[in-house]
Amino acid sequence: MKLKGEVAAVTGAGSGIGAAIAREFALEGAAVVLLDAKLDAAQGVVAEITKAGGRAQCWAMNVTRQAEVEAAATAAEAAMGPLSIWVNCAGVSRILPFLECTEATWDLMLDVNLKGAFFCCQAAVRRMLPRKRGAIINLSSQSGKVGASAYAAYCASKFGVIGLTQSLAQEFAAQGIRVNAICPGIVPTPMWEQQTVDYARKRGMKPEEVRPYLLSKIPLGRVCEPREVARMAVFLAGDGAAYVTGQAINLTGGAVMD
Which of the residues 154, 199, 213, 243 is marked catalytic? Predict the structure, then answer.
């Protein structure tokens, strides 16, 4: 087991990529702290993990509220032990033309995707510094590497996540804290499925034409599965990545190589 004895917090852990990471961490021996604004969803994943013999608990937490982040981190450590891994997976996304992007939509993207990561990274670093050991993993996106039309707010937030990752990696390397980002391409999650109609409108196609079109743009010819993101998170959290920090690793099937 690659993460035996570790305590890992995962935000956005009630569904999609966050849930996949929580499950995979548990399989690798970590005690998992699931943090999600939707407590019912997180409780369902906790039930799966504990039924399989893993150790997990969940707390309701809105990543855009610093007091909630700090309170959940404190409660989690009291219940589960010192946090050694923190994964920022909570996120929102919206495809819409730039001139239709309202201030409210812009603020939502930046608040959840970037400010939320900032608050959570602060909570993680505060708890890891006294032990001079820890791994933080931020979920960015291929849209944090290459801008896409009708995606301005999301791209801005995910480019920001990479900048945050690199800055923290520089600042805290000497204190034994590694910080990396994962940049997935298309991942079939509930969030992505909800955007299929918007993507079809953006490209002037029918919703059923979206998936074949996207596959045609990916050299490996398929989308990235949630568990593949989770396996990369396991690697970055474990000893095998002891010399890896400040990286933004693509999981795009070759669609993005920079």
Answer: 154
Q: What mean pLDDT is predicted for residues 13-23?
A: 97
- CATH number of the domain that residue 132 is part of: 3.40.50.720
Give the C-alpha distances (Å, rounded to integers) separating 98 from 19, 36, 101, 221, 230: 31, 29, 5, 29, 32
Question: In angstroms, rounded to a whole number, what is the distance separating the alpha carbons of residues 79 and 210?
Answer: 45
DSSP one-letter code for 138: E
Q: Is position 207 within any domain?
A: no
- Which residue carries 């002891």 as its tokens? 242
Residue 152 has pLDDT above 90, yes or no: yes
Asked if the structure places residue 192 within a domain, the reply is no
Residues in a beta bridge with 60: 36
pLDDT above 70 coverage of the chain, percent: 100
Give the sign of the dihedral formed by CA 214, CA 139, CA 115, CA 256. negative
Domain count, the chain: 1
CA distance 34 to 57: 6
Asked about 154 being catalytic, the answer comes back as: yes
Is pLDDT of 85 > 90? yes
What does each C-alpha distance from 180 to 55, 107, 120 come to in angstroms?
Answer: 25, 25, 14
